[in-house]
Design goal:
By secondary structure, the protein is an alpha/beta fold. The protein has seven helices and six strands. The strands form two sheets. Strands 4-5-3-6 form a four-stranded parallel beta sheet, sandwiched between helices. It has a two-stranded antiparallel sheet with strand order 1-2. Helix 7 links the parallel strand 4 and strand 5. The longest helix is centred in the middle third of the chain and has 16 residues. The two termini are about 30 Å apart.
Length: about 220
């Protein structure tokens, strides 16, 4: 209950001298234990990780390369450095930083389409209306399409509707038909095919060239990795 959670949290906090001085957040969450029996789990994590990273990572290794597509804010690294314990730069540590633009010609080689006339995702008509839009987009692209779904229920429904409307025109694959590696290999070897998958399927997947010309994401957001 809510009162039980608050009482538990108060007890946890009182075990330290001053919870305001303790840079650790604690929480209780419902989980599934052995044999999927409902239980609860006490978790804790540091609020700030900068000092830990500085002590156990930056000062221990000779050279570190941090690379990401989302490290800067307003083309500056101040926020990243402050979060990882490098603002200000500690003594005896030096660094260099750089922003390197993508070689991909987005204005000429990419198109982003956002439909504005679909029902809200919680609507019972969302999947049916989305299927009509998705199938039309597949026809426009001529195949070579990934459809990335946020749930297996949506994946099954959309792939079934696509099979009914497009099955005579395109080869349609979906996650669960075969293993992940075999599924991707089959997609690559089948020109102009369609592949429906869940969000977990696409992590680390890269397809180059004409095999993949369109990615459709019916629903946002995805879970935070």
């Amino acid at each position: 209950s809510q009162s039980g959670f608050l009482q538990s949290y108060k007890i946890i906090g009182e075990k330290g001298n001053n919870i305001a001085d303790d840079p650790t957040v604690r929480w209780i969450e419902k989980v599934r234990g052995r044999h999927k029996v409902p239980t609860s789990q006490l978790s804790m994590a540091p609020v700030e990780v900068g000092s830990t990273l500085q002590e156990n990572l930056f000062r221990k290794l000779k050279t570190i390369v941090a690379c990401s597509a989302t490290m800067t804010v307003n083309n500056a690294f101040h926020h990243f450095r402050s979060r990882v314990g490098l603002e200000p730069i500690p003594p005896n540590l030096s660094y260099s930083e750089g922003i390197y633009p993508s070689p991909f010609d987005y204005p000429r080689q990419a198109f982003l389409g956002l439909p504005t006339d679909l029902p809200q995702p919680r609507s019972k008509q969302f999947i049916e209306h989305s299927a009509g839009f998705i199938n039309e987009a597949i026809r426009r692209s001529g195949g070579g399409v990934f459809v990335l779904c946020t749930s297996y229920f949506m994946l099954r429904k959309l792939s079934e509707l696509a099979q009914k409307q497009l099955g005579n025109e395109y080869r349609i694959f979906y996650q669960g038909q075969m293993g992940r590696f075999q599924l991707l290999e089959t997609f690559l070897k089948t020109p102009n095919s369609i592949l429906f998958g869940a969000d977990s399927f696409w992590e680390g997947v890269s397809v180059q060239g004409e095999n993949l010309r369109m990615v459709i994401i019916p629903k946002l957001p995805f879970r935070v990795p």
